[in-house]
Design a protein that fits this description.
By secondary structure, the protein is mainly β. The protein is built from five helices and 22 strands. Strands 12-13-20-16-15-17 form a six-stranded mixed beta sheet. Strands 3, 4, 6, 7 and 8 form a five-stranded antiparallel beta sheet that branches. Belongs to the PHYHIP family.
Length: about 325
């Protein structure tokens, strides 16, 4: 009985958020005999699985033999920033339709990548289509508890330090777990034009004039678009001082927005007049300022509304089934 040698020396290369290239070695006499490849691709068990996410099952791909390395692509079984294990078999299709197959190769592990700038531009277009009209605002605000601001005063010299972006939103967003910043809101109430009295983060509120963060010396980037199994959609934007470490990070990874012409957050100015700042009304903006912010540049106060803890986005997972905020590359 004939046998095929076991594939070995598996090589994974050119990994993206929804594709990779794979190659391997075989005995010289078998390299040209194979008519098909079987690829067993399995997602590694997550340490903190998202209980809402669609379950992944081992996926065996069958493909006709092609020159190696070959590209494996498919958003229906590959997600960004996800660890996978892969093994391969080679096979020869017999005249009776059955396959003569090799043993499985060794198992190789790899991790898919972040969304590319092109993928983020797709998200940006989707977000822009529902952003709604622009409304004026004058301050960015940050809600926290009093203990946080007391810590900033006593331990940080009155300067809010950047903290690492958590894993909330799209799994493939390049800023998750990689970009540090101070997080602000700017949405206003429709009837008053003022920041809302409610907050999921705490009763203390720091307000800072919009021009302090969004000036000619800062650059604006699109970071993410997501929802959390609710009707509300969130857009994450990054404001980075030009030339800063955060700016350099964003230049390589995120789409840059024109401060005067975009559907989310604008700064416009007529000759001889003060700048006018506007925010999108129909999405909730999360603004990451990629540098420290001094309390001396703003005002600290308290809000009187409810603490809407159900609206917190801390480590919130994106709804993978939402057709409004997902694109066809992973979830």
């Amino acid at each position: 009985m004939e046998f095929l040698s076991r594939p070995h020396s598996i090589r994974i290369s050119e990994v993206t958020c929804d594709s990779f290239r794979i190659g391997w070695a075989a005995e010289p006499g078998d390299a040209g005999r194979a008519t098909h490849y079987f690829i067993d691709l399995s997602r590694k068990e997550a340490r903190d699985p998202n209980r809402f996410k669609h379950k992944d099952v081992p996926t065996k791909l069958v493909t006709k033999a092609v020159p190696l390395p070959m590209t494996v692509r498919g958003h229906w079984f590959l997600s960004p920033r996800t660890e996978y294990s892969v093994a391969v078999q080679t096979a020869v299709k017999q005249p009776d339709g059955e396959y003569l197959v090799s043993e499985w190769s060794e198992v190789i592990e790899f991790c898919t990548g972040d969304y590319s700038r092109a993928h983020l531009q797709q998200l940006q277009l989707k977000a822009g289509s529902i952003a709604g009209r622009l409304r004026p605002f004058s301050v960015f605000y940050r809600n926290q508890n009093q203990e946080y601001f007391q810590h900033v005063r006593l331990q940080c010299g009155g300067v809010m330090p950047p903290v690492l972006k958590d894993s909330s939103g799209s799994v493939g967003s390049p800023i998750n777990g990689a970009l540090s910043g101070v997080f602000f809101s700017c949405n206003t109430e429709f009837d008053t034009g003022l920041p809302p009295n409610d907050s999921p983060y705490g009763a203390a509120r720091f307000q800072i004039p919009a021009g302090r963060l969004f000036s000619r010396d800062t650059r604006l980037y699109f970071g993410d678009f997501y929802c959390m199994y609710t009707p509300y959609h969130y857009v994450v934007l990054v404001l980075a001082p030009s030339g800063s470490q955060g700016d350099c990070f964003c230049q390589d990874r995120l789409p840059e927005l024109d401060p005067a012409h975009n559907p989310f957050l604008t700064r416009t100015q007529q000759e001889g007049a003060e700048p006018v700042y506007s925010h999108a009304h129909d999405v909730i903006l999360e603004v990451v300022f990629a540098a420290p912010v001094s309390l001396a540049h703003g005002m600290l106060g308290e809000i009187s509304g409810h603490m809407l803890m159900s609206q917190t986005t801390a480590n919130a997972k994106k709804d993978p089934s939402c057709k409004t905020c997902n694109i066809s590359v992973g979830r």
